Amino acid sequence: MQSTPESISNILSQPTLNPALKAIGEKVIRHERISSEEALVLFEQGEIGFLGALANHIREEKYGDHTFFNRNFHIEPTNLCVFSCAFCSYSKLYKHREDGWELTSEQMMHIVKKYDGIPVTEVHIVGGVHPKLNLEFFCDLLRKIKAHRPDLHLKGYTAVELDYMFRKAKVSTEEGLNMLKEAGLQSLPGGGAEIFAPHIRTQICEDKVDGEGWLDIHRTAHKLGMHSNATMLYGHIESYADRIDHMNQLRTLQDETGGFNCFIPLKFRNQDNDMSYLPEASVIEDIKLYAVARIFMDNFAHLKAYWPMLGRNNAQLMLNYGVDDLDGTIDDSTKIYSMAGSEEQTPAMSTDQLCELIYQAHRVPVERDTVYNVIKVYEKEAVETN
User: Fold this and answer.
1) Distance of alpha carbon 325 from alpha carbon 365, whole angstroms
2) The dihedral of CA 53, 259, 199, 280: what is its sign?
3) Residue 148's closest CA among 156, 140, 136, 159?
4) Distance (Å, whole) CA 200 – CA 22
5) Cα 198 from chain centroid?
6) Are residues 226 and 336 in the same domain?
7) HSE on the CB side for 313, CA within 13 Å?
8) What is the tally of structural domains in the chain?
9) How many C-beta atoms lie closer than 10 Å to residue 227's C-beta?
10) What is the pLDDT at residue 9?
């Protein structure tokens, strides 16, 4: 699906087009920010062809056909957790720790050493909130990883993990982040944001850090020169208005700090959790969400479809609806979404497979580092021969 200003103009000139949608489309063409009210119109009245044309126009103005990925692996220190989020299929309550896992520092270093001599650029460290894996423990782990492999970008710990870590250590957010930064932490993932709306949060994740706390941790990280990602869990009990409120709060913080690398919508998966009675969002709803996010989140450089969560085919489809990033090779090192019912039960793709997935969508694969510096552009010939 290729977009040009002319094709957008043709769509906007159709006499049957809803006047409200036409006005929004014209604002997008003029590079004007749309309001929360206009985003609601897009969700409620925009057909996917119209939304896709606008989102793809924005995406191609920014990057043409370039589609980003990185070479990364995950470390998940534990799935034991003091919190009990209704949507989570991954964690086990700490009081039932015989059902979960808990890695030692040595075991995690063994995972890191498995990648010696392999050109990965990032390790992504997230897991459950474990009462004994504290700030001191993780600072020590970071130092060991950085000493062993100084070139590896260390991205780690959701705001939920950090909030608990810092409260347990009796340090402020800034003090705690500075300690982790000095130990080697370079950026934060976006997990734990879920939905900021308090009336939703009290139903799905009442006992962990609230939306304001999540935003404050990322604000502080940005102040300290650390970039981060932002997420939103969608497709459960939230409304369109709740989604827009969430995205608007992220957009406002990005206006303030400019510290977010990308926005990552995360689809609720309903296997083996306390919300399994809910149906999952349809692919049409996925498309609408990604397209509206690309249109609304005008100050976010990148929109990511996390393929282990969506499945590789649906993630590939989203490349037509505003998405310019598919995350990374992962190498079967995350269980978070396979345990929740994702199609990707063994989430691993080689660089060649990931490039081919992008190329099949008539896009050009671009390997990046964590903060989107370009490492290599894979043209057609490179995809075919690697």
Assistant:
1) 9
2) positive
3) 140
4) 32
5) 21
6) yes
7) 4
8) 2
9) 20
10) 79
Tally of CB atoms within 10 A around 293? 25
Q: Which residue has the tokens 């609304």?
A: 296
Domain stops at, among 47, 63, 79: 63
- Asked whether residue 157 falls in the same domain as residue 184, the answer is yes
Closest Cα partner for 249 from 266, 232, 261? 232
Instruction: Looking at the structure, tell me whether residues 48 and 149 fall in a common domain.
Output: no
> Is there a single domain that holds both residue 174 and residue 295?
yes
Task: Show the domain range for 30.
Answer: 5-63
- Residue 53's φ and ψ, nearest 5 degrees, are -60, -45
CATH of the domain at 319: 3.20.20.70
- Inter-residue contact 51 to 61 (CB < 8 Å): no
Length of the chain: 386
**At residue 273, does pLDDT exceed 80?**
yes
Same domain flag for 244 and 379: yes
Strand 72-75 to 122-125 pairing: parallel
Question: How many C-alpha atoms does 226 have within 13 Å on its Cβ side?
Answer: 27
Please give the model's pTM, rounded to 2 decimal places.
0.91
d(CA 131, CA 81) in angstroms, rounded, equals 8
Co-location of 55 and 187 in the same domain? no
The structure tokens 């969002």 sit at: 281
Residues 225 and 347 both lie in one domain: yes
Q: Tokens at residue 280, please?
A: 């999952």
Closest listed residue to residue 228, CA positions, set 151, 304, 339: 304
d(CA 43, CA 284) in angstroms, rounded, equals 11
139: its two tokens: 């600072």
Q: What is the pLDDT of residues 205-261, one digit of tens each?
A: 988 999 999 999 999 999 999 999 999 999 999 999 999 999 999 999 999 999 999
